[in-house]
Design a protein that fits this description.
By secondary structure, the protein is α+β, with helices and mostly antiparallel strands. The chain folds into three domains: 110 residues, no CATH class; 41 residues; 126 residues, no CATH class. The chain contains nine helices and twelve strands. Strand 5 and strand 6 form a beta hairpin. It comes from Luteibacter flocculans. Keywords: Cytoplasm, DNA recombination.
């Protein structure tokens, strides 16, 4: 499937060689089922599906991985309710208060009884590594989730010094300038979504708009009042629509029909379909990331 959000990291040319051994490195970090007395486990699963063994899938200089976790769903409220019942029962039957030490033991007993019966939920986060251009692209808008994937890659490789983006041009200033002028840079067009905030106050008013014309007096009035752009809808080359944040996270990414019409009609196999989709997706992403690196001056680490 195509990525819907892009959280980005960069790495140097010296680190690129590590990508060639990803499949071997991940072998010892495969996701295993969560045990009856465990809260969670994490590891990697095959991008090709549960029936496949390979933990990476490479097309050209792009290598896709899927980080996953299994977690037992045992809400604290369920544990606390059961603990309260047992404490109350002791108070009623024995006429005494339960000490903090005994309460801790009772809570451990509750966990030991309920944990093996709790439902298990699996979550997955896809990512790919562009060895030639030094990008790690994670399909999430959550910085924490993206950092977790990067942490898992570092753990598997021993070291992988990919770093968050360090723009030399302020994204907020540039996005605000584009909106105020009504003109995005060459190759881009304004979309139909915006988030404006007053940067001077943490609790200042927030203006959000979707499915609207951004070239209006109402929007310009907010800009004249000192609000700045924190998120802006854009369209790149009539091929990709997305919302770009001042954190340079790409959200709500969609390919237009121009791109989708280039998909093969009937791939020979699931692997062939994945090859075609990964090649198409990374090609489009690559053009977009090149432009973002140019406008916001996102240097590749030395």
């Amino acid at each position: 499937m195509f990525f819907r959000n892009l959280t980005l990291f960069r790495f140097s040319t010296e680190v690129a060689d590590d990508v060639s051994r990803l499949d071997e490195a991940l072998a010892g970090h495969r996701l295993r089922p969560v045990g009856p007395m465990e809260m969670s486990t994490r590891g990697f699963v095959s991008p090709l599906g549960p029936a496949e063994d390979s933990l990476t899938h490479t097309v050209g200089h792009y290598t896709k991985v899927v980080a996953a976790s299994e977690s037992r769903m045992l809400p604290p409220s369920v544990v606390n309710d059961e603990l309260a019942k047992r404490v109350q029962k002791i108070a009623e039957n024995e006429g005494r208060k339960v000490s903090s030490r005994e309460r801790k033991k009772l809570k451990d007993d509750v966990l030991n009884e309920l944990l093996p019966r709790a439902f298990v939920r699996q979550s997955r986060t896809a990512a790919y590594v562009d060895a030639r251009n030094g990008w790690v692209v994670v399909d999430t808008s959550s910085r924490r989730a993206a950092e977790d994937v990067l942490s898992m890659l570092r753990e598997a490789l021993g070291s992988f010094p990919a770093v968050p983006l360090a723009p030399e041009e302020s994204p907020r200033v540039l996005l605000t300038r584009w909106l105020a002028s009504g003109e995005a840079p060459t190759g881009f067009a304004l979309g139909d979504e915006v988030e404006l905030r007053d940067p001077a106050t943490a609790s200042g008013g927030v203006v959000r708009g979707r499915l609207l014309d951004l070239d209006t007096d109402e929007v310009r009035e907010h800009l004249r009042a000192g609000k700045q752009v924190f998120r802006l809808g854009l369209v790149f080359d009539d091929r990709i629509s997305f919302v770009l944040g001042e954190d340079l996270v790409v959200r709500k990414l969609k390919f237009t029909d121009v791109v989708l019409d280039e998909q093969p009609d009937s791939p020979e196999s699931a692997a062939a379909e994945l090859d075609a989709n990964l090649a198409l997706m990374t090609l489009e992403h690559g053009s977009l990331l090149d432009k973002l690196a140019q406008f916001f001056k996102l240097p590749r680490p030395e």
